[in-house]
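Researcher: Please predict.
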Amino acid sequence: MAQVQMQVPEEMQGGVYANLAMVWHTPYEFTLDFAVTQPTAVDADGNALVPATLVARVKFPPTQLFQLMQAINDNMGKYESQFGAISAPGTPSVPPDGPPQM
């Protein structure tokens, strides 16, 4: 199996923070949109609106999606072995070393 030697441009080394992910697809690719949400607002009809700013869009061919899901699952297991169980959605969770620094 080949080993990837990834070059990370200096301006991307810090990464971006996202607290929302959306997934959609076409017959040819899966698209993962990552965003940061802003405080919830309420429209004139009383509906909650959650403004979000897109910080990254990544497109994957369907043939690689399985490998992505395996890598995420493997890393979740490693994370939980080291830091404990990840909280279920809707439950506040802060990483062991505190919230991310911006």
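Model: Strands lie at 20-25, 30-37, 41-42, 48-49, 52-60.
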